[in-house]
Amino acid sequence: MKKSIHLVLLIAIATLAACADDKDDVQGEEYLVATPLTTNLGEFKEEAVAVTEPVPMVESGKIYAYQDYIFVNDLHRGFHVIDNSNPSNPNPISFIKLEGNYDISIKSDRLYADSYGDLVIMDISDINAIKMVQRLEGAIYQQFWCTVGFDVDWPQADFYDYGDFDASKEAIVGWEVKSQRISSEELQRKFGVGDPNVSFDLSNSSAESASPTSGDTGQGGSLARFKIVQDYLYAVEWSGISVFDISDLDNPKTLEDVYVNGAIETVYNQGDILFIGGTQGMYIYDISSPEKPEYISEFVHGTACDPVVVDGDYAFVTLRGENSCGSTESGLYIVDVSDLVNPQLKKFYPLEGPYGIGFKDDNLFVCDGDAGLKVYDKTDVNDLKLVSHFKDIVTYDVIPLQESLLMIGDKVLYQYKYLNNDIRLLSSFSLE
Fold it and tell me: CB under 8 Å to 246, separation ≥6 — which residues?
């Protein structure tokens, strides 16, 4: 009899405990939830474009060279225009405010730029009177973060609740953060997770490739998302290539996007071949039919941020495995692409935390982040030799021009003069 009573009591206690657990699960826990404050997207975009007097740089982006001018990206905010007719003494001209901007590319005095997923075209034939030509809405991409004002700080919160936010009509100008009690069921339903300790990184870097261009087309660095090849503009975005026919410079035709099987970051061309850098590998596409890039092959590596340049039979790929980039060891991958269908790793060299890369003749220039600018002799890819190492500077990307090397660091534009097998600092210009 006593055993029966004990059994009943145990069942009752267990039932009560389960009910208490269910109640706690229904009530949930307290979390900080951020909801966006929005405004009309059309009005917001109009206010996001302007040409002003030179202003101090906020955060270094990329560099782009066209004729005697250098365009320096101020991350997400626009770009600074600099007269470089005298490389020993560059002179700032203006600042083009273009919010939501990552990249530019220029052909025949027409500047193409992205802004919140739109393609913006400007007439720069008179550098002192830059004019807007047109804006193609949603031509490049339409992720929701494209319409977050970059002067808006991301709040500290456990979750971001976008509700019925419509990126095609609204722009985020601020956030409201409140404490909310959320059940595990609601966490799964609204946010797709049961663990609040999840986050994502919206940062990403970009620029244009340093492969040879025609005389009427500008030149950028290895972190490019934009690349003009003859009458076509290629813009890589997350997992696709946006293709534009720019034979009519003022009225580009938006062609069909090409899907890429991976997250992609940069674009470089060698002739009719595109080399796409991604977080999982390098993808190779044929653009002999320029309106429709055709997949050839890919070279897979571990997860890392990945710009690429190509010289002849070799692709030089820098991988940075830190923060949101991944856990792959940082370094330089040299890939044999003599057989485009079957690219093979030739050699690996460890680096600290590389970003951009470029080359001229036998010199290979590597921006190794906080570790400075490294210059290698690449005559023998199996035995790279360090020729110079410029330490105590932050390095981001380089453009090897015909007569000099441009490099962007932390709000500083550096220019170097080529020597026989080395380079010498020509000027440094603070953008602060």
Answer: 107, 110, 112, 228, 231, 232, 233, 252
User: Would you state the structure tokens that stand for residue 132, as one six-digit string?
Assistant: 């807007």
How deeply is 140 buried, as exposed, middle or buried, from its count of CB atoms within 10 A (0-12, 13-18, 19+)? buried
Contact predicate 425/413, CB 8 Å: no
Q: What's the one-letter identity of residue 46?
A: E
**Rounded to whole angstroms, what are the CA distances from 295 to 8, 199, 267?**
69, 33, 14
Q: With a cut of 70, which residues of the chain have pLDDT below it?
A: 1-27, 39-48, 141-155, 165, 167-171, 173-174, 187-215, 302-304, 322-327
| pLDDT tens figures, 345-357 | 999 999 998 999 9
DSSP 188: I
Note the pLDDT tens digit of each residue in 244-300.
999 999 999 999 999 998 788 899 999 999 999 988 889 999 999 999 999 999 998
Domain 46-142+203-430 indexed as CATH 3.40.50.2300: no
Q: Provide the 10 A C-beta neighbour count for residue 259.
A: 9
Map tokens 């020993």 to a residue: 88
Whole-model pTM: value is 0.76
- Cα 238 from Cα 147, distance rounded (Å): 16
Residue 97's identity, in one-letter code, is K
Burial class (CB in 10 A: 0-12, 13-18, 19+), 12: exposed
pLDDT, one tens digit per residue, over 173-202 is 667 888 888 887 776 666 655 443 433 332
Q: Per-domain residue ranges for the chain? A: 46-142+203-430
Q: Which two three-digit tokens encode residue 398? A: 């380089």
What tokens appear for 35 in the block? 């909801």
CB atoms within 10 A of CB 334: 18
Strand stretches in 183-229, DSSP E: 207-208, 219-220, 224-229
Q: Report pLDDT digits (tens) over 145-179.
A: 445 554 455 567 777 777 776 766 666 766 788 88
Q: Which two tokens stand for residue 254?
A: 């938006």
